[in-house]
Design a protein that fits this description.
four-stranded antiparallel β-sheet; alpha+beta; single chain
Amino acid sequence: MFYSVRVDGTISLFSAEASGPGLADLAGVLCGPGRMTGFGRTAARLSALVDEPWRAGALARECRRRGVQAQVSAAECGRPLVRTPFRVDLLPLEQRWTHGEEKVLPDGFRLDGAMLRMWALAAGSPQGNGYLLALDPEAPETHERLITALAQLGVPAKAQKGEDALLRVTGRRRLAHVLELIGDAPAGAEPAWPSLVPVVRAV
């Protein structure tokens, strides 16, 4: 169980636990490295290449919380891969997030805390006095719209200088708001969570 409670003791309308876990939350993985693959027009599956094995394990556990089994394996490139089976109930996600063979951001997309939590697990990391969220470099048309979606959630972000596929959130108040939205880190995922103390990466 994770909690995200404001200082006044109330729960944010958009926080991860404002409603129970649902399949719609998996859209957060698609904000980052996730991809949907359809099987004809009858089923679809979600897959994501991630940078660390613990990310794949954490995403698989979050999928199971939503009633979706997910397998963790190594892709041909050697990176960890988390992938669900083909399922009928994942077809709506595939239909909204793909156009032809390209990933697109659905019209009217609204980000919430549960989706942001999944995005953080898949591709978030603290750096210095900020927090980075990786985008999908193969879906550049989603980038500006995801910046807008974050701003609508009260999390202004900018493209990392020199890195078109990374968004950076800075400022203690903004980072505190991200933490309010996504709740506590699940076991083992602490390295992906925002920190209110500047984080220095070893070189």
